[in-house]
Amino acid sequence: MIVFIIGTILNLTRTIGNEAWMGFWKAYVSIYLGVSIVVIVWFSVGGFINLRDMIRRLKTMTRDHSDSGFVERKI
């Protein structure tokens, strides 16, 4: 929002050429694309690590066959 306000003020007070706006949008999109790729890789690696840990735990976990899956309220 701050970038939008500053850009609007600059455009109203002086003329900014098309080349400058194209340079701004190229940098803006490049930064967001780079950050997005980093976040996607970060979440994917973390998700696969957690998935591997969950599968390992499920293989070694002892089952309680008396568990019905319901939470019983004890008074």
Which key terms come to mind for this protein?
2 helices, mainly alpha, 75 residues
Structure overview:
- The chain is mainly α and 75 residues long.
- The protein has a domain at 27-60.
- Helix content is 73%, strand content 0%.
- It has two helices and no strands.
- The longest helix is centred in the middle third of the chain and has 43 residues, at 18-60.
- The N and C termini lie far apart (53 Å).
- The mean pLDDT is 90.
Got a strand count?
0
Q: Please, what is the oligomeric state?
A: single chain
Strand composition percent: under 5%
Helical residues, percent: over 70%
- How would a crystallographer describe the biggest sheet? none
Task: Report how far apart the termini are.
Answer: 53 Å
Average pLDDT works out at 90
Content-based structural category? mainly alpha
**Rg, please?**
26 Å
Number of helices: 2
Order of helices and strands: HH
Shape: elongated
Low-confidence stretches: none
Write the layout of secondary structure elements.
Elements: H1 2-13, H2 18-60
Question: What is shown here, in short?
Answer:
The chain is mainly α and 75 residues long. Helix content is 73%, strand content 0%.
